[in-house]
What we know:
The protein has helices at residues 16-42, 47-52, 67-74, 80-112, 118-128, 137-145, 167-172, 178-188, 194-201, 206-214, 219-234, 238-243, 252-260, 272-302. The protein is built from 14 helices and no strands. By secondary structure, it is an all-alpha fold. 62% of the residues lie in helices and 0% in strands. Among the domains are: 32-54 and 63-77, no CATH class; 80-116 and 177-269 and 290-308, MetI-like (MetI-like fold). The mean pLDDT is 83.
Amino acid sequence: MAVLNVPMKKRRNFDVSHLLAHLVLAGAGFTLLYPLIFMIMAGFFTEDEFSSSILGLFPIPDEPTLLNYKTLVFGSADSHVQMYIRNSLIRTLYSTFFAVLTAFLGGYAFARLRFKGKDALFLGLLATQMIPGVVSLIPTYLQLARWPFAGGNDIFTGGTGLLDTWWVYFLGGPGLNIMGTFLVKQSLEKVPYELDEAAKVDGAGPLRIIFQVLFPLQLPIMAFIAITTALGTWNDFATPFFYTSSDELQTLPAAITRLTSAATGAYATPNYPLIITLGLGTTIPALLIFFFFQKYIVQGLANTGIKG
């Protein structure tokens, strides 16, 4: 009778280095998550209790309330909150759609079309990426303020131009996505031209080749561009803060700053629990997008074929 020799599972010896590594990782994880934990707990405070309490490491209210979270979701205490969220959502969707469209069409033009000065133009576009965004704030402000025949402007007298209008978002958001164009160009250069020729033999026209043959091959990169653009636009504070003043045009990040400075009086303090809760409402969508779509970010960068 044959006897099967089943190997015994080796007992893992206690390793101090593994324990220390887990403790360090747990401490680092707690350090990164602590601001989020604090924001969640602070959202249960009333304005009066928050301003009169001595907060500990984990603030626990004596009389918890859901008013701040109801305001975030339903606009219970401040109806403008829903308007801020709506503006942020509209701007994010609009900018993301045009970022994907311009990145793909721009990448296709530089990768597939032949025209004079193509390389110089592409290098010029890449060079603009070296300019810090803060440097362009004043030139962009002047460009919007001096936009001809808008906001009282004409060729003789000045006015407000496109400042404090939705055109700030419509014109500023969908500009050419230069980094996305670069990624699409790098990826399309790996696709053989024989694929285009085969599609032409089958009777496909230019638009069909672009959107039915080449575009599906770029879906991971398109997803990467869409995710990064959505995150950047949703969290954008500078554009609404510097170029708009009407409350009806504010997005959630800029509105939080305005609420912080809205308190009046010698001893008045802002409604910090509501402000922190609105900050939580700004943070959670970005975290969820990154958590569920992070694989597309990795795939998008992996498929670009960038060579050193």
